[in-house]
Amino acid sequence: MSGPKSSESSPPSILGIHHLKIPTSNLPAKLTFYTTLLAFTHLPHFDHRRADTNELYAVIVQHAPTGLLVELRINEAQAQAQRGWDAITWSVQTRADLERWREKLVEQGVECSRVLRGYKGWVLVTEDPDGAFVRWYCLETHEWDVNIDKGGRWPYNAHGLDVDPSSR
């Protein structure tokens, strides 16, 4: 077994995330969710189409303030496998921002949690059209606390790791 490689043979540094890829079983519904509720912009010039049939299988959306690109790609099996999973947690500045997000979601008829107490801050949870959890976590913090909000439809720990499954 050899030791660490020298820096001369190390790969170049990673500059950041180029784009995120999110599976969906319903591309139009997921696109509407991202562009209407989350205020991403659809970039149709980056639409992905099959060469042989011209069938649309993926779209790119962008979060203008940060430049973040997200690819929404049809993959029914993967979308089903990620139901109840929160692959991405969006960041907001304050608990008040979470409350404003909640107001917006409720105004749009989207079911969501109340603002929940997390380990170090507060979190808001909803589902996208495929049933994947979408979470927002605020940078405003409180002292570390293991007495997080648990149970109910929207447990803080969406993965059920320390949540009674009968509470869902």
Automatic annotation (TrEMBL):
Residues 16-139 form the VOC domain. It comes from the Eukaryota. InterPro entries: Glyas_Bleomycin-R_OHBP_Dase, Glyas_Fos-R_dOase_dom, VOC_core. Pfam families: Glyoxalase. The keyword Ribosomal protein applies. One of its GO terms (cellular component) is ribosome. Keywords: Ribonucleoprotein, Ribosomal protein. This is 40S ribosomal protein S30. It comes from Favolaschia claudopus.
